Amino acid sequence: MTTPQEKAAAARKAAEEAARIAAEAVAAAEAAEKEAADQEAAETAKSTGDTAKSTAAKADSAAPDKDAAAAQEIAAGYAMEGLALELGTVITGGTVHPDARVRIPMKTMNRHGLIAGATGTGKTKTVQGIAEQLSAAGVPVVVADVKGDLSGLAQPGQTNDKLLARAQETGDPDWKPQGFPCEFVSLGTEGIGVPIRATITSFGPILLSKALGLNETQESTLGLIFHWSDQNGLALLDLKDLRAVIQYLTSPEGKEDLKGIGGVSATTAGVILRALVNLEADGGDTFFGEPELDPADLMRTAGGMGVITLFELGAQAARPQMFSTFLMWVLADLFQTLPEVGDMDKPKLVFIFDEAHLLFNGASKAFLNQVEQTVKLIRSKGVGVFFCTQLPTDIPNSVLSQLGARVQHALRAFTPEDQAALSKTVRTYPKTATYDLEKALTSLGIGEAVVTVLSEKGAPTPVAWARMQPPRSLMDTIGDDGIRSRAQQSTLYGKYGTTVDAESAYEILTEKLAAAQQQAQEQAPAKSSRSAKPAPEPESMAEKIVNNPAFKNLLRSAATVAGREISRSIFGTRKR
Q: Between 365-377 and 320-337, two packed helices, what is the crossing angle to 10 degrees?
């Protein structure tokens, strides 16, 4: 028989065992619940990851489609019906799209343009490619080749796999080496090209003041000196002619004539004279003279191709502003001589100013006004003007606003001034949702540019980040010997190779001063005799000049004097 104590112990033991079993059951339940929760979380994570991967994959596959669509939308703005220059192909999302072409309509090339970018970004090669295509279309081109980098235009380029691949991706699968008809000319007689000159008379006071670095007061004085020379029929062909006129006007014999001009200070005239002497010391005497450049020689074709005339500095390396000012004279001369033609399918001539900032450095207000007027009006004569420089801010706003095409290579933003120039440049472009222009302009690779031009309808095209086509001619110089050889074989060398020193102001004034001195010596004894009749009042220098037979012959010569007074037009240049 079980005692009560044994029953209590058995019950306690059974309770403990039941508690142990219950605890194990709870633990097992908790473990099962945790396992179920972990499994569910894993499955959810897997599902989420698969969805994310799927979304990313879809986004990755959609990105090229979006970039390609943006490229085609941009290219649609460059679709042309008529002749066009091929610049390159569109880049979007870092990808080049060979079928998305960027072009300039040939009929808007006379609306002018700007090619800008930092050193080494590809500006020169862009100029080379544009000159090639213009020549191939039968359009003559004038290029200021300040550093001699473009002489390779005369010789076919060199083929390599890298160049062919570049041509393929920039929309020129038929690329092959080709040379183009070129004329090599130099400013003055000390260069390696055909020597080119201008007479002082035709150059005019405003351009000459720019070349001499005169201020506005001195420029005004020089204008009066030119006016006096024109009125008196004194042809100013070279520097010694102008120097002789100023020396005469500041001499005792010319004192009355100097007063007659009005507002001319002898001190200011002396400053101008010293500036002339400095210009002559720098080689300016080799530039001014005859035979003078005939603008028609810049507008020739050869075998159906436009002749590319390359101007190099010659002896004017010490005065690069003289070089750019001379090119402005050529442009002004074309403005005066060419007829109005209105809109054409292609321009009659395209002018490319390299290192264009030299043209505007230190320019007077009168000079800037005339540049603006020339650029604005010369397009109706069928002439296009392209300025090539490092920063768009190098060009005055009044001129920049006249430029229809913009080819902007990479800009640098290392200084606050660079950053300000970058911001100004961005604001001059049309709005674009495809590019962050401020970032793009500092990220462009060599041979890439941000482009916008005028369409055939005259509206700006969409902004395009373009990879530019490679030139077909040699992307290197042909050397001084090659340039010299080609220049001496040119038909222009026979026309301009020899300097002509015709009778002009220097000879006339020298002769008259010598005659005046001799007459004074002969009259001296007569004046000492009391019985002698009073000597007639001597002629003024102006009267002596006018009565001189050589001067009268000079007046009749159409080559040196146009009528009784030389008439002047833009920049104060002589009207032909």
A: 50
